[in-house]
Design brief:
Blueprint (H helix, E strand, L loop, with lengths): L18 H12 L10 E6 L2 E6 L2 H17 L5 H14 L5 H18 L1 H10 L15 H6 L2 H8 L17 H4 L1
Antiparallel strand pairs: 1-2
Length: 179
Amino acid sequence: MEIATPSSSAAPVSVTSTVREGRDAYLAENGFTLESYEQRWVKVAFPGFTITIPNPPVRQRAVRWHDIHHVATRYGTDNAGEGEISAWELRRGLRGLGPYVGAIVLGGTLLGLVIAPRRTLRAWLASGKGHANLFARDLAEYEAVLALSIGELRDQLGIPRDGLATERKLHVAAPALAV
């Protein structure tokens, strides 16, 4: 399995890899863990500082799907990449997320519009009218989605086989950046 470098636009895994393999590569390159899905509090890194936010059950559910969205779209985890993924998710709908997670997605979109307006608008447009994201799915479907190939998931979501990202970087605290 090939892990992308922090500034690489290369995919961490191929379209024939399973979504599970893609998720695991995504978690590893970013220094995230499966255990963090269940933690009551999580740290979010920004340039120069880190904040700790609550991780209630609605966010625990949403972040699992959000991470799969990163695998499907190939958007990065730096602030511009989070702006892109947030805009993509927002346009596709926030059904079932509640106000807390909805505010996080809206905030990510607004941050993206400030720091990377072209990329954020391109992600909004690339989301395509009438397509859904994974947020509306029940977690009972999660294992079945993990068993799909990344190509199959992209087909289901109406995403091109190569993903959507034109530039892909990692967040400031990613382990690959410490090397």
